[in-house]
Design goal:
The chain has four helices and no strands. It is mainly α. It has two domains: 57 residues; 45 residues, no CATH class. Helix 2 packs antiparallel against helix 3. It is elongated, with a radius of gyration of 22 Å. The two termini are 43 Å apart.
Amino acid sequence: MNRSELRRIKHMNTEELSKMIETIQYDSSLAGVTKGFDYAVELVYSVMALTLKDELGFGHKRVERILKICEERFQCIDGGKASLEDYKQAVKDELNITITATK
């Protein structure tokens, strides 16, 4: 924080300081959520890629193709074209597998 920012903060009233603190807290929590989401995606992709290679004998090209398709489907969720529930229901209906987050 530079001198000009410090001077500005000294002259803020309580309401302005509260808003500033809320903004900082929101930005921090959003950064934490984003970091957690990125970690989860990298974890799922890594485990899936190695499982496809080790257990099913998939090579580089096939695994890369599958990861690209997965990325496109994630983008459908981000874009609002589909939801996680849509995908979970399709897996249940088509494969008779229930997807849940368990330890």
